[in-house]
Amino acid sequence: MEKLTTCCFSGYRPEKFGFPLNASRMEYSLLLGYVNIYILFSVEKGYTTFLCGMAQGFDIICGETVLRLKKHAGYEHIRLVCVVPYRGHGGQWAEEWRLRHQRLEALADEIVYVCEGYERDCFLARNRLMADHANRLICYYDGKSGGTA
User: DSSP secondary-structure letter at 74?
Assistant: First the structure.
C-alpha cells in the first residue's frame, strides 16, 4: 500500500459516544453524513486505500461507508483493508457488531492480521501499523481518554 494515498480511521466504541448508534437518532445520521463527506473528500484528494482497525463503533462505521462508496460509479477503485488486531477478534461481541465485523472481513479487498492470537499489545500494534502506513487520519475524538486519544 502506498502511504501517500492511504487513510486510516480512529474513533470511539459505541459506549463512548454521547448518543446511541441507532439509525433513528438524528446525531447518528449526522455522524454518518460527516463520515461520508470526509471519505469522499479524501478520495477527491487522491486517497485510494482505507485502513479499518475493525473496532466496534467508529471504525466499523467508516469501513461500511467505504464499502457503500465502492458500489458507486467512479469509486470502484478505492480499497478497504481490514487491519485486525488478532485472528478471532470480534467473535465474542454481541450479534449486531459481530455480524458487521464479519461482513467487513468478507467484503474487504485485503485483511491484515496483526497477531495470530490475542496478545497484550495487539491493539497498540494495530494502531501503530495503521499510523505508520497512512498519510491521513479520519477520526472521531471529543477529548475523552482512551485509545483514540
Answer: T
Sequence-ordered strand ranges (E) for the chain? 6-10, 49-52, 79-86, 110-115, 136-139
Give, as one character, the DSSP assignment of residue 94: -
Cβ contacts of 114 within 8 Å, gap of 6 or more: 83, 84, 85, 86, 122, 125, 126, 129
Tens of pLDDT, residues 37-64: 999 999 999 999 999 999 999 999 999 9
In 3D space, the residue among 37, 38, 51 whose CA is nearest the CA of residue 7 turns out to be 51
Q: Side chain identity at 70, as an amino acid letter?
A: K
Task: Give the Cα separation of 16 and 136 in Å (integer).
Answer: 23
| pTM of model > 0.90 | yes
SS3 content of the chain, % helix, strand, coil (to 5): 40, 20, 40
The cell numbers describing 2, all together, are 502506498
The CA-to-CA distance between both ends of the chain, in Å, stands at 25
